[in-house]
Design brief:
Elements lengths: L1 H15 L4 H14 L4 H25 L3 H9 L1 H34 L3 H18 L2 H12 L3 H9 L4 H6 L11 H18 L2 H13 L7 H30 L14 H42 L13 H18 L5 H27 L2 H4 L6 H27 L6
Helix pairs in contact: 1-7, 1-12, 2-10, 2-12, 2-15, 3-10, 3-11, 3-12, 3-15, 4-5, 4-13, 4-15, 5-6, 5-13, 5-14, 5-15, 6-13, 6-14, 7-13, 8-12, 8-13, 10-15, 10-17, 11-13, 13-14, 15-17
């Protein structure tokens, strides 16, 4: 019975923690600009994060090695250090954007000055991370993040053309007016793909598996959690895209802030829909901020060989504790300047795709190493999917920055 409860909670927390501010912004904007036509990218990215999430959990359960220990071993100190710096910079920018997103949600709820709410959100997240153990952080923010299901309900209530929805999960290229529009389409495709396959998800997931003392016997549990949890989480992102396509596109509304997404629940469910949507966004963004702050500390500690488990009291792992506190403080200093959190998250997501190959290649090599993994080594199917997605990731990494420049950040 305890095992089934663990699976149930794992699925719900994976689902509730799937959508953060970057994925919300890009999903809604993709629907508002291109209708249903980018749904295939969501399907492709979901399978990819399942493939590498499953590998990360399986490697952690068998070898007890977190991702950044593997990266250092497989790529060497210099390349590993470069990956560490890039990964932590992306996590820092993402954490800053999530704190800004929390403040924007609080502003819609409380109507207080934005900078004061940034400080309030920062303190709430810092104290929560200090006081709660990892499993409770995951459950509280993941489970309350499930309130974002209101976006799925709203999308269904708006009666999408299900035939068109289904067809657009097949790779397609819509008819657009100009070459520049195609560049913008490609930019949103790369950004959506990156937002789903954000590297911090595998860093954090593998670290959590080690914190929870997973053993090889937990590999089936790992597979159920990543397949079901990430698939249902992706359904939340699909609901956001459908709202953009059904409501914002016909009204010619271009969402510039995360709050634009709540127009769908407002139209569908009124004030109750607004409150539930904002509450879900608060916990989703807050959970992502905590995960990125902890991820930065995990990465640094694992690379340098420090004690790092969150289950330790702060005094039991002082350098690890100082690292995640520093991540929060630096993120606060970035967002308190007044920089647009949407722009911050857009840049962090686009640049994150650049480091994806350096993250996933060592993981793929380790999961395919029979000497390390024994009977739990990658089979032919996992290897094929792993290399297929590594090629896609590498192509996306080469295209990300040029597309960002050519399209002026997706603005055409």
């Amino acid at each position: 019975m305890r095992k089934y409860l663990e699976i149930f909670l794992g699925i719900l927390t994976a689902m509730g923690g799937f959508v953060e501010v970057g994925e919300l912004v890009f999903s809604v904007n993709a629907g508002a600009k291109f209708g249903y036509s980018l749904l295939w990218i969501m399907g492709l990215g979901t399978i990819g994060i399942i493939v590498y999430g499953e590998m990360a959990g399986r490697v952690a359960a068998v070898t007890k090695q977190p991702v950044f220990h593997i990266i250092r071993e497989r790529t060497g100190f210099v390349v590993g250090l470069g990956t560490l710096i890039a990964a932590n910079l992306v996590s820092l920018l993402t954490c800053a954007a999530e704190i800004g997103g929390v403040a924007l949600v609080l502003k819609l709820l409380l109507n207080l000055p934005y900078r004061a709410l940034i400080l309030l959100g920062f303190l709430l997240l810092l104290l929560t991370t200090w006081c709660l153990p990892l499993n409770w952080i995951e459950r509280v923010f993941g489970l309350f993040g499930l309130l974002m299901i209101v976006f799925i309900a709203s999308a269904i209530y708006l009666h999408p053309d299900w035939r068109q929805v289904t067809i657009n999960f097949i790779p397609n290229l819509p008819q657009l007016e100009s070459r520049q529009d195609y560049f913008v389409y490609a930019y949103f495709g790369v950004a959506l793909f990156s937002s789903i396959m954000l590297p911090y998800e595998t860093y954090f997931y593998a670290s959590g598996a080690i914190e929870d003392h997973w053993e090889p016997a937990d590999i089936n549990l790992n597979r159920v959690i990543v397949i079901v949890g990430f698939t249902l989480g992706s359904a939340l992102a699909v609901g956001l895209l459908l709202i953009g396509a059904q409501y914002l596109l016909p009204a010619r509304i271009e969402p510039e802030l995360p709050g634009a997404a709540v127009l769908g629940p407002i139209v569908t469910f009124g004030k109750a829909g607004l409150f539930v949507a904002l509450l879900g966004m608060f916990f989703a963004f807050g959970g992502a901020a905590i995960e990125n702050a902890l991820t930065g500390a995990y990465n640094l500690a694992q690379f340098l060989g420090w004690p790092w488990q969150k289950y330790r009291k702060p005094v039991g792992a002082p350098r690890f504790t100082l690292a995640w506190v520093a991540m929060f403080v630096l993120a606060l200093l970035i967002i308190i300047t007044g920089v647009d959190p949407v722009q911050v998250v857009e840049y962090s997501i686009v640049f994150s795709v650049v480091i994806l190959p350096l993250t996933y290649l060592p993981l793929l090599m380790t999961a395919s190493n029979e000497n390390l993994m024994g009977p739990f080594v990658n089979g032919w199917f996992a290897k094929t999917l792993g290399w297929f997605y590594l090629i896609l990731i590498s192509i996306a990494a080469l295209c990300a920055v040029p597309l960002l420049i050519i399209t002026h950040g997706g603005n055409g």
